[in-house]
Amino acid sequence: MRERTKLENAITALTGIDTELSDNLELAEMADAEGDGGALDEIQASLTDLRIRAQAAELEALLSGEADANDTYLQVNSGAGGTESNDWAGMLLRMYVRWAQQHGYKAEVIEESAGEEAGIKSATVLVKGENAYGWLKTESGVHRLVRISPFDSNAKRHTSFASVWVYPVVDDAIEVEVNESDCRIDTYRASGAGGQHVNTTDSAVRITHIPTGIVVQCQSERSQHKNRATAWNMLRARLYEQELQRREEAANAEAASKTDIGWGHQIRSYVLQPYQMVKDLRTGVESPSPDNVLDGDLDPFMAAALAQRVGGEKSAEE
User: Fold this and answer.
1) 60-89, pLDDT tens digit by residue?
2) Topology of domain 180-251, CATH
3) What is the bridge-based pairing of β-strands 72-78 and 266-271?
């Protein structure tokens, strides 16, 4: 119901804008014929306002999915390749945290497994804010990095992979049933920063959903009880996201986006050498400034992927 209301509001707004645009174009023709410069200036200002309103309505339409308005979990996993991939996963994590901060979102690390020499093996971040899931949902997939490795004394070019998985926080408006008998719960000692108490007690919690194989874990709190509650919420969110994926695949006849972390499955390439470019392989959107992208400048890629996704859903419905 919520997503339908958002979409209906956006359609109503765009219809009104289209009517105003036609009226202004007719007035512009009349003013031009009469040489009325003052009227033309007013019409120009009106058209500028219409463009701003149209962009806002377009964004509202793109973010009209069932859970788009919700907070979201974003999980980063390094691919094969040891230190290289771990470092790349750490760079991706920083990129998304920077993007979140630039948009006024709060990014909270729920779980992090550090790499042995650099970067991370995996991490999960909770991004809180209006439309967090709507913006980030198209970032799920494999991300590829090409660069001269800082860990290679021979300065050879290396290719690294890491995967991103995004799933929405389930709020009170969404019901997801989980049978505790279908789950295995493990506790273990948290690693990394967090204080002496965190690292000397079994406060971290891992939940495995046996029917689906989904695994979630949380170690952000000193209390095992709090970590357990967060892990349960993460599991419900993953199961809900899985259902959303199933619906989308049925409508679009697309393969699942969670694939092997390696060649042939990437959604975006980040090339630092021998030239500099970031290219989204789904939409064709490019940027000649990888440094800016890695510092959080992701909006052009996200907007294009959202537009493509909405267009695909409409085609499937037709």
Assistant:
1) 677 877 788 899 999 999 998 788 999 999
2) Double Stranded RNA Binding Domain (3.30.160)
3) unpaired
- B/e letters for 113-150, b = 16+ CB within 10 Å, e = fewer, are bbbeebbbbbbbbbbebebbbbbbbbbbbbbbbbbebe
Task: Quickly list DSSP for 159-172.
Answer: EEEEEEEEEEPP-T
Residue 31 carries which side chain, given as an amino acid letter? A
Q: Is 207 exposed, middle or buried (0-12, 13-18, 19+ CB in 10 A)?
A: buried
Contact 138, 268 (CB under 8 A): no
pLDDT digits (tens, 9 = 90+) for 188-210: 877 654 444 445 577 889 999 99
Q: Which residue matches tokens 């339908």?
A: 4
Residue 187, CB-side half-sphere exposure with 13 Å CA sphere: 14
**What number does CATH give the domain 72-172+263-315?**
3.30.70.1660
Stated pTM of the model: 0.69
Cα-based torsion angle of the residue sequence 278, 94, 256, 303 in order, rounded to the nearest 10 degrees: -60
